[in-house]
Amino acid sequence: MAVIEKLAQLITDCGFDAFAVMPAVKVTKMGPILERAKAEDRYPRFVDDDIAKRINPSALHQNAKSVISLAVSYYTGDPGPRPPLHGTLSRSAWGVDYHTVLNERMDRLISGLKQSFGAQECAKAVDTSFLVDRALAIESGLGYPGSNCCVYVPPYGSWVFLGEVLVDVELPVTKGEAADNWAEPIECPACVQACPTNALLAPGVIRPERCLSYLTQKSGSFPLEFREKLGSRLWGCDTCQQACAQNRAARPSRHREFEPIVGPHVDLIYLLEMDNAQFKAQFGRTSIAWRGKNVLQRNACLVLGNEGRSEAVPVLTRTAENHPSPHVREAAQWALAKISQAD
Ligand code: B12
Q1: CA of 33: how far to CAs of 37, 47, 155, 334, in Å?
Q2: How many whole angstroms separate alpha carbon 82 and alpha carbon 79?
Q3: pLDDT given at position 180
Q4: Is the entire prediction scored with pTM above 0.85?
Q5: How confident is the model at residue 100, as a pLDDT?
Q6: Beta-sheet pairing, 160-167 with 200-202
Q7: Tens digits of residue pLDDT in 4-17
Q8: Which residues of the chain have pLDDT under 50?
Q9: Dist CA 250 CA 73 (whole Å)
Q10: What is the 3-state secondary structure (H, E, C) of the chain?
Q11: Does 31 contact ligand 1 (Cβ within 6 A)?
Q12: What is the 151 CA–ligand 1 centroid distance (Å)?
């Protein structure tokens, strides 16, 4: 069997849906995009400030010769209608934490690379490393960027998690069908128009601090300006991906791990009454858990305020009076005021 076929087999067996291989060189085209984002005060908050490091695979693995860019799809069906007094989770948070799932699969892949491809030292990254996962996915040809900034990997649309394994042997360069498309203009405005907070300034240009995904994850007070725009979103936001015509024919995911274990809709009254142990039992395996209970309870209050139903008043009153976090108490007060206006 040719090396590339053997590699493809290993990667599929380890549970990945698509891959591309590139030499472990700097991703030159992302640099100017990140510099511009910084100059325009659009650089994301949760990430490393050192741009040169973020686009250089060797900064993660000094002896890396190849980068295997990987995708796993998580499109596990439609959420269905939201029941009253429930909040919506973005699709990426429905199932088992994707960091856990991808890390385990990458560990298996690394064992196979050591056993059968002569690799001695490998590194892996998914989301939390300083590397820009999307940049490696695009440069390797695994996928292409959409107007919503997400990377699309045919036939799965943008509903894919990305990761990469850095290997100290030269593997055959394998471009996906969307190889090297940084020069393509991004034009479709559907997601730009659909974004409730105008976080998408233009196709391919995002202001992360206005993105509801960011706002639902950040701690502290939720900015007043965006509270009504939050609507029924409890965590994350899929609006820009749902608005995209290219996602309509996305192939469903084969990975049971990403089927809902807490979502797609969460009972907000139950959430507000939860103690830490219940929160851990309910959300501990998901990618939401890292943020803790308070942020989710703050969001729950805002969603209940936006819904305006009087059944939420008793739990919001208790929360406004007794919750240990000032940000959750304040969000509950805001919600009570909204509900009394709606009456
Ligand atoms: C910080 C971060 C966020 C921030 C900022 C998002 C952002 N767009 O930068 C917030 C909290 C808002 C966020 C939200 C989400 N995130 Co996030 N996030 C990250 C993280 C940690 C770093 C992202 C980063 O460095 N951005 C830097 C900027 C410059 O990147 P960008 O704007 O997205 O880049 C695109 C555009 O600039 C565009 N572009 C600009 N100019 C030009 C010019 C040309 C010619 C071309 C062709 C393209 C182009 O192309 C770039 C690549 O797509 C990565 C993991 C990682 N370590 O890389 C995950 C990651 C990007 N997130 C991910 C996910 C799933 C999400 C959400 C869908 C979650 C949700 N449902 O709520 C949303 C999507 C929001 C969106 N539309 O981007 C996935 C994306 C998978 C994919 N298929 O693209 C990643 C890769 C995690 C992972 N490993 O799977 N995220």
Answers
A1: 6, 15, 27, 38
A2: 8
A3: 66
A4: yes
A5: 98
A6: unpaired
A7: 999 999 999 999 99
A8: none
A9: 9
A10: CCHHHHHHHHHHHCCCCEEEEEECCCCCCHHHHHHHHHHCCCCCCCCCCCHHHHCCHHHCCCCCCEEEEEEEECCCCCCCCCCCCEEEECHHHCCCCHHHHHHHHHHHHHHHHHHHCCCCCEEEECCCCCCCHHHHHHHHCCCEECCCCCEECCCCCCCEEEEEEEECCCCCCECCCCCCCCCCCCCCCHHHHHCCCCCEEECCEECHHHCHHHHHHCCCCCCHHHCCCCCCEEECCCHHHHCCHHHCCCCCCCCHHHCCCCCCEEEHHHHHHCCHHHHHHHHCCCCCHHHCHHHHHHHHHHHHHHHCCHHHHHHHHHHHHHCCCHHHHHHHHHHHHHHHHHC
A11: no
A12: 8
Output the CA 320–ligand 1 centroid distance in Å.
Answer: 35
Give the number of other CB atoms < 10 A from CB of residue 190: 17
Token code pair at residue 289 = 């858990």
Domain ranges (residues) in the chain: 3-77+93-167, 190-246+262-342
Distance 63 CA to ligand 1 centre (A): 27
Of 140, 150, 171, residue with least CA distance to 19: 140
CATH code for the domain defined by 3-77+93-167: 3.40.109
Is 267 in the active site? Answer: no
pLDDT of residue 105: 98
Pocket residue to mutate for ligand 1, from 149, 152, 195, most atoms within 8 A of Cβ: 149
